[in-house]
Amino acid sequence: MLRALARGMGTTLKMFFRRKPTIQYPFVKKERSARFRGRHELRRYSNGLEMCIGCELCQVACPAAAITVMPAENDPARPNSPGERYAWKYEIDMLRCIFCGLCEEACPTDALHLTREFELADFTRESLVYNRDRLVNKHTSDFQVPTHVYPPYSGWVPMHGPAGGDGAGAASGGEAPAAGDTPPAGEAKGA
Fold this sequence. Notes:
4 helices; single chain; alpha+beta; Alpha-Beta Plaits; two-stranded antiparallel sheet
């Protein structure tokens, strides 16, 4: 028993005199690996258009149901993305996110990117639900808009006449959209 105790104390003393790998954290930060998955960001093309086309694949791929995407029709005069749609509501609940990277892999346009930023602490739950203002990168990337992928878009044109009634643009299924869940005024259909 004394032998085992001496052996344990020997290990402790060996470690006691080794150089400590302590860093002065707020001022010196440890370099993260290239595969590290941190804060989400939505990228922009080099011409300033958002890469996200509102396809909702990231929302479907998320196992924690942390992503909410609501697409809207692009305004041909002032497009937000090169496609027919863009994500007018994009939210990620960072408290639910498990940083698995499946949303990044599911994105067909490489719009969603998990950065190496890891300092995500905050004081309230509401501030940890990131919306488009916090997710869309303010700077453009080196990515070019793909040619021959997006057809020329000049606005939504109905394929058929209004289905029954007065065609006033009632919500499908008889449901009214929840407050705050309506697209911008220029995007709404009907009166």
